[in-house]
Design brief:
The protein has about 475 residues and is of the alpha/beta class. The chain has two domains: about 1-235, Rossmann fold (3-Layer(aba) Sandwich); about 255-470, Class I glutamine amidotransferase (GATase) domain (Rossmann fold), CATH 3.40.50.880. Helix content is about 30%, strand content about 25%. A seven-stranded parallel β-sheet has the order 4-3-5-2-6-7-8, sandwiched between helices. The protein has a five-stranded parallel β-sheet with strand order 14-12-15-17-26. A five-stranded antiparallel β-sheet has the order 25-24-21-22-27, with no helix packed on it.
C-alpha cells in the first residue's frame, strides 16, 4: 500500500522552547481551516497528547523507537495517520536527546528518520539574536541528514525576525515565521510537566487567539507545502495491522474491564488501550474520585497514572469506592495498576504537605514524596518468576517518571536501564495483581495485555457460573 502521508515534525534544541504551544496553535489553525489532521508525540509522554486531543477531539499517538524500533514505529504512524490530510508530530526534549542522555536512540531525530519527516526547529529567541544562527548551524551539521528544513522563531519581535531571516537562510534553512512573546503562548507547569488541559480555564479561547496570531506571523501555507513534499511511505505488510494476529476472533464475547479515568487518574498510552480493545476488552470508565461504586459487571480493573497526591483527601473520603476495590481484589478480579494507580492501592498516601490519608489497602505500606525524580527514564523489566502476566525471563519495556516512592515497591520484576548495569526490583505480581511504578508500553510485548484480557475473561465466566449456581 502506498500513501503520501503528508507530515511535519516540530522539534527544538531543548525543552521549554514552546513546542507544545506552537503545535497546538498550528493544530487549531488547521482545524479552523477545516483540514483533517492527526497528531503524534515523540517519546513516553502522556500530557502533551492530551493538549493535542483538546484541539482535535481525537486521540493522538506516541511514536517511540525505544519501545518498538524504527520499522514498527513507521507502521504504527501509517496505521494511525490513515487518510488525514496532514500529520503533525511534536518532538521530545532537545532534537538529538535520546536514551541515556548521550545517544540519539529514541530521540526526535530518531523518530524523524523512522517516518522520514521534514523537521521544523523551534528556536526560543528570548535573550539571544545572531547566536541562534550558530545554534542552527550546529544542529544542521551535528548529524548527517538532519532533516531540518526550516525554523520558527519563538518569543521574538517582527523586527528581529526580519534581521535574522537572511542569516538563517544563508545556512540553507527557511524561516517560516515567528511568534511574538504573548500571553496566549504561555502555559503553567507542574512537577510532571504542563498542567492538564482540563485545569486551564478558557484554554480553547486561548488557543484560538494563538492560532489567529500564528496566521499573521507564521507561514502556515508554507508549512503545509513542506508537509506535502514528504516522501511517500510504504508498509511492508500492506494488508495487516501489526497486532492483527492477536485480536479477538469475530463473534467472540467481549469482557468488561473498568478503567479509572478522572482528574487523579489520566495517564494512559492510547496504544495500550487500543490493543486491549482489539483483544476483546470493553473498557468501562469510572472515577475513584466521584463514583461511589465500581461499574457493575466489570471483570477486571485498570488504574493508570496521574495525580492522586493532589486529591488525597477526596480519594480517602470516598470509602465506598475503596471498599469496593478491596472486595474486587479479594474476589480475584484481575487488577493492573501503574504509578499513580499503584500509589492509590497502598494502605496510605502521604501528600506533598505531609498529610497522610488512608487508601485502598490492597498493597501494604505507604507512598511518600521524595522531592526529586525517582528511577527516572526508560526501562526494560524482566520477570524473575512466573506470574499471571509474564513468564520467567520474559520482559516488557516502559518508563518511570515520579516524584513519589513506596515503602513496598514489589520484587516480581527486575527493571534494567538500557545500556547500563543499573537495575532494581519492582512490581507486585502475585495472584491477580500486577502493580508498580513503571508505565509499561504494551505493544512492546503484547503477551502481557493478551494474558490480562484472558484472565479477565476467566473471571467473567466464573462470575456467571456462580450466578447460575445460586
Amino acid at each position: 500500500m502506498s500513501n503520501s502521508y503528508h507530515r511535519l515534525l516540530l522539534a527544538a534544541p531543548r525543552s521549554g522552547s514552546g513546542k507544545t504551544m506552537i503545535t497546538c496553535g498550528l493544530l487549531t489553525a488547521l482545524v479552523t481551516r477545516k483540514i483533517t489532521c492527526r497528531s503524534f508525540k515523540c517519546g513516553p509522554d502522556f500530557i502533551d497528547p492530551m493538549f493535542h486531543k483538546h484541539v482535535l477531539g481525537i486521540d493522538g499517538g506516541n511514536l517511540d523507537t525505544y519501545f518498538l524500533g524504527k520499522e514498527r514505529v513507521k507502521d504504527q504512524f501509517m496505521e494511525l495517520a490513515g487518510e488525514a490530510e496532514v500529520s503533525i508530530i511534536e518532538g521530545v526534549m532537545g532534537y538529538y536527546d535520546g536514551v541515556g542522555g548521550n545517544t540519539t536512540e529514541a530521540s526526535s531525530y530518531d523518530v524523524a528518520g523512522a517516518v522520514d519527516a521534514p523537521v521544523i526547529l523551534i528556536l526560543d529567541c528570548k535573550g539571544a539574536s545572531l547566536s541562534l544562527a550558530a545554534v542552527v548551524k550546529g544542529f544542521l551539521e551535528f548529524k548527517e541528514h538532519s532533516r531540518i528544513a526550516g525554523v520558527i522563531l519563538n518569543r521574538t519581535s517582527e523586527v528581529m525576525a526580519k534581521r535574522l531571516e537572511p542569516e538563517m537562510e544563508a545556512l540553507g534553512v527557511r524561516v517560516y515565521g515567528y511568534l511574538p512573546e504573548c500571553e496566549e503562548g504561555r502555559l503553567d507547569s507542574r512537577h510532571l510537566g504542563l498542567v492538564l488541559p482540563g485545569e486551564l480555564e478558557g484554554l480553547k479561547e486561548q488557543l484560538s487567539r494563538l492560532a489567529q496570531t500564528m496566521e499573521k506571523t507564521i507561514d502556515i501555507d508554507g508549512l503545509l507545502a513542506l508537509a506535502k513534499q514528504s516522501t511517500p511511505l510504504e508498509r511492508v505488510n500492506a494488508n495487516q495491522s501489526q497486532f492483527q494476529h492477536m485480536t479477538a476472533e469475530n463473534g467472540e464475547e467481549q469482557v468488561f474491564i473498568g478503567i479509572a479515568k478522572d482528574e487523579a487518574f489520566c495517564f494512559y498510552y492510547q496504544e495500550n488501550l487500543k490493543l486491549l480493545e482489539k483483544m476483546g476488552a470493553r473498557l468501562v470508565p469510572f472515577s475513584p474520585l466521584h463514583d461511589k461504586k465500581l461499574p457493575k459487571g466489570v471483570s477486571g480493573l485498570i488504574f493508570g497514572g496521574g495525580y492522586p497526591e493532589l486529591y488525597g483527601r477526596e480519594l480517602s473520603e470516598n470509602t465506598s469506592m475503596l471498599l469496593d476495590i478491596q472486595n474486587a481484589h479479594q474476589n480475584s478480579v484481575p487488577i493492573l495498576a501503574e504509578c499513580g494507580g499503584f500509589m492509590y492501592l497502598h494502605e496510605e498516601l502521604e501528600t506533598d504537605g505531609h498529610m497522610i490519608y488512608p487508601m485502598a489497602g490492597v498493597i501494604k505500606g505507604k507512598t511518600f514524596p521524595t522531592n526529586r525524580l525517582s528511577r527516572f527514564g526508560y526501562i526494560e523489566a524482566f520477570s524473575k518468576e512466573d506470574n499471571f502476566l509474564l513468564k520467567k525471563g520474559e520482559s516488557i519495556k516502559g518508563h518511570e517518571f515520579h516524584y513519589w516512592d513506596s515503602e513496598n515497591n514489589g520484587d516480581c520484576l527486575a527493571a534494567v536501564k538500557p545500556g547500563r548495569q543499573k537495575s532494581w526490583e519492582c512490581v507486585h505480581g502475585e495472584n491477580n495483581l500486577f502493580a508498580g511504578f513503571p508505565h509499561f508500553y504494551y505493544p512492546s510485548n503484547p503477551l502481557l495485555p493478551e494474558r490480562f484480557t484472558e484472565a479477565c475473561k476467566r473471571c467473567q465466566m466464573e462470575k456467571r457460573r456462580k450466578q447460575r449456581d445460586e
